[in-house]
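Quick one, tokens below:
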């Protein structure tokens, strides 16, 4: 009986001349606690997006408190694994603002001040190269 070898083409290889193949990732995948799913992402996808870790409620959970740790791990995973495209920026829709943004929302200048401070804090971290997001 003859044996044949069937090398399987990955999704990202099959469509490399047409478009990127993407997936939305959870921390279990990009932190590699779910090794099966992380391996699948590495093998099949060349564009990644975070499910929720780059939303304001995660990055800026309380006034004066910032946590870029999961965002940094997401970016590091993408860079390490040669993803052609890392999607998302921590400024997402109004529905993902944490409660302190809502409390600051009245009057509008108070909300604008909270948002301005958060954006400046993010930009400073990025420009200083303190975050994997800056790479």
């Amino acid at each position: 009986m003859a044996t044949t070898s069937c090398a399987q083409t990955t999704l990202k290889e099959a469509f490399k001349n047409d478009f990127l193949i993407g997936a939305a990732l959870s921390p279990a995948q990009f932190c590699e606690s779910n090794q099966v799913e992380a391996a699948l992402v590495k093998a099949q996808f060349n564009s990644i997006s975070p499910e929720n870790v780059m939303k304001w409620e995660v990055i800026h959970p309380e006034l004066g408190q910032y946590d870029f740790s999961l965002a940094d791990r997401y970016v590091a995973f993408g860079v390490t694994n040669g993803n052609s495209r890392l999607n998302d920026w921590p400024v997402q829709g109004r529905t993902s603002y944490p409660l302190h943004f809502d409390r600051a929302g009245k009057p509008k200048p108070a909300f604008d001040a909270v948002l301005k401070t958060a954006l400046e804090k993010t930009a400073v971290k990025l420009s200083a190269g303190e975050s994997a997001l800056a790479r």
